[in-house]
Amino acid sequence: MLQSLRSWFAPPTLYNDDQDRIVTLTSTILILTILATIVGGTGGILASRGQPINFIPSITIIVLEIAVMFVLRRGYVQTAAWAMVSILWVGLVVIAALVGGLNSATISLLVVMVMIAALTTGERGNYIFTSGSIIAVS
To answer: Distance between CA atoms of 53 and 45, rounded to whole angstroms?
Structure first.
């Protein structure tokens, strides 16, 4: 069972070195964000102290990221990279809008999203997510 988990979490290997780099980076980011969402949801349960909690955003992010993981496993590297960055970027913008706008610490994570977009989606993705971040902040 442990071997099957390792093989599922290991990024697929492709014939192109540049594609392998993007696959490895995308797979690592997906796994880390799934784990961070699970830890954040658990922390929300512990911090709520009996208050009702809305789990729909966390469950939605986890389901979408697992779907992107399946797309990545099928070999659609650019589609998976664009979907991953789009899901994370929209999630950050929505969280920033709901939590505190420009005063939120989430806004600083948009810079990280632009860097991830540049590494995984290329120059076009970098321009698109940079422009979107500027529009979202203003």
So the answer is: 7
